[in-house]
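Pipeline run #58 for the internal structure catalog. This entry was flagged by the ingest filter as a single-chain record with no existing model, so it goes straight to prediction. Upstream metadata was stripped on purpose; only the residue string is passed forward. Reviewer on rotation: M.T. Logging verbosity set to normal.
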Amino acid sequence: MKDENQGQKTPQIKVGWMGYVAFILAVLMFSGLFSSSDGWLRALDFNTLNGSFGTIQSTAEKALNFRGAGGSGAKDGFIFAITLMPAVILALGIINVVDGLGGMRAAQRLMSPILKPLLGIPGVATLACIANMQSTDAAAGMIKELYDKGEMTDEERSVTIAYQTSASATITNYFSSGAAVFGIMVAPIILPLIVMFAFKIIGANIMRMYLKAVYRKQAKGGK
């Protein structure tokens, strides 16, 4: 039987120059490159824009953070969830602005030839993968929105989640928690980052192969 789609060309995605500019700015914003900059450039960093909660003065005159100290159970979990909301809302707002300017179409056109063979996911997931280097919750929110809009299949979402789960918020956690051992590390500081990034790709491809094996088995069982 002849394939009806045979001979048909894949439609080209039209992207204006504003879309490319928006995509590049979004990549820089979520990458963390401007986190240590001085002056106005720091305003282009996602974590800087996300800000931080203030401190609460305790009865013992000891400054505590927004969540306080000694919390437990559902109540402490609820307060923790509140701390995640600003990052998710800000990230989704940025993505909607970028999408309105054509940035997501630019991401799909530029990054699909790279992400498809590397991870098997579309180029529109680029910003979520980059945001995952700084923020766990913001990156997860982006993937949910892409899936809800039909930009990603369930398989692509699962592969991307596998990528995000491994060493999530890599740069943020590494340079905050990992700073305690920088003084005694023998290897270059950049080496663990490279290893973590490599295993993020490996983990995503393990999930990719597993899903393909499952779908292949289901297809055979359905015959």
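catalog note: The longest strand covers residues 56-57.
catalog note: The chain has nine helices and two strands.
status: ready for reviewer M.T.
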